[in-house]
Amino acid sequence: MSMSFNGYFNGRRIILDERKLSNEYVPVKLPHRRTQIEETLSILQDVYRGQKKILRTVIYSGPSGTGKTAVARSIGKEIKEKSDQGKMPPILVSYINAHEYRTKFQVLRKLGNDSGLDIPRRGFSSEELTQYVLNFIDRRGHNLIIILDEADIIAKLGDGNDLLYVFSRLNEILPEIRMGVGLIVIFRQLEESLEYLDKAVVSSLSARVVRFDPYTSSQLEDILWSRIQADKAIKEEAVSEEIISMIADTVGYVPETKTGLGDARISLKILYYAALKAEEEGKDVILPEHVRYVMNKGVLPSYIDEEMIEKLSLHEKLILLAVTELLLAEKEKAYVNMGTVVLQYEDVCNRFGEKPLKYTRVWETVQMLKKLGFIDARIGRSTYRGKTTLISIPNASENSEVGINRIPLSVLEKILRDSISRELNARQRGEKPPQE
Ligand SMILES: Nc1ncnc2c1ncn2[C@@H]1O[C@H](COP(=O)(O)OP(=O)(O)OP(=O)(O)O)[C@@H](O)[C@H]1O
Ligand SMILES: [Mg+2]
């Protein structure tokens, strides 16, 4: 059964379905978002169960890539499907992205279009349009759920106040309307956006706020595996634990230090581009070097360039070269043990005729390289799919593993060798004093 049928028909080596890696795709499962989903459903339940003359509002708040849009869309999709199948009362679910529909008029027009109305661009005032659209939906006996995404922008632009006021006071403004309305308003920076809104709006909007925190690396691992296994976006055999952990560790949020992006979109993007890079090279598996290549292409807010490497101290470069050499020797591995690094580093020093630093200094230098973003260190662990077992306390150097995730080793190795040789030559010629 070398060529089974499940998805191999597209003839690609690694990617099974490109669409499933795009932003618009709503994944079949949303790991680590169960609380947010349950909370939303409980707030909206009267609305999707058909109760009239009610308004229920939920506000989503959280940084980029934390699943706000995905959760809202997946809830909307599910409610719509149940309603279409006759398992729930008739409902209209309208998804409106405020980046696309920026004014009150445009938002209402989109709502009208979603309900099947054809609305001219002119000829209506936005008040008339409000009446017209909402009456239309109401007359059909539908309830309504509006997902207003990226609402930050609408809060900042002129008539956001007006729009949110109308939505939050529907039953007072249009007393003849009977339908029940559910509102999910999504903000990236809630506190900042609220400052742009009038007090009256803020108070009438007084809704439950559902928080979306950045994802930790182990949560990102689950999300990435889920996209591979449940959604079948990528061939499972093409991806190793090492690859997923590499991406998740680099992007994951660390609560203790409050560092790391915790952004699922970026982690999926890295996986996707690494898969493309591997395919482009005619490979059947994604290798750490493909991930490094992608990480260095500017998908991360800070990435490493030649100038940054030049600025490192000599022993920082020597240690980095030692890690590079070890990783180059093992194509499929993304991390090497700290003990091995020390041995390799001593070897590198010998080759360049340089006296190696003591162990504690090497360890400090590694920590510095980590802070500078050159090295990605993790605590040694045994991983098996989706679960991570720490085998030691954090920062214990013997159990640490280090990797280089943000720049291709082939590029790094060359820059380091050139730069180290140049520095040592300059020193020999007496142009540069030895460091410490
Ligand atoms: N828990 C999750 N499980 C599976 N996929 C997820 C999860 N969270 C986010 N994603 C995926 O990550 C990407 C980004 O998520 P989403 O668009 O929901 O972020 P967001 O919070 O709306 O960010 P922004 O504020 O930038 O709009 C999407 O492709 C989404 O499918
Ligand atoms: Mg979003």
TrEMBL record:
Function: Involved in regulation of DNA replication.
Positions of ATP binding: T66, G67, K68, T69, A70, Y215, R227
Annotated TM spans: none
Keyword Manganese: no
GO biological-process terms attached to the record: cell division; DNA replication
Coiled coil: none
Record-given protein name: ORC1-type DNA replication protein
Residues annotated as domain Cdc6 C-terminal: 320-404
Organism annotation: Thermofilum adornatum 1505
Any single Pfam family the record assigns to this protein: Cdc6_lid
Family: Belongs to the CDC6/cdc18 family.
InterPro entries from the UniProt entry: AAA_22, Cdc6_C, Cdc6_lid, ORC1/CDC6, Orc1/Cdc6_arc, P-loop_NTPase, WH-like_DNA-bd_sf, WH_DNA-bd_sf
PANTHER family: CELL DIVISION CONTROL PROTEIN 6-RELATED, ORC1-TYPE DNA REPLICATION PROTEIN 2
Keywords: ATP-binding, Cell cycle, Cell division, DNA replication, Nucleotide-binding
Gene Ontology MF terms in the entry: ATP binding; ATP hydrolysis activity
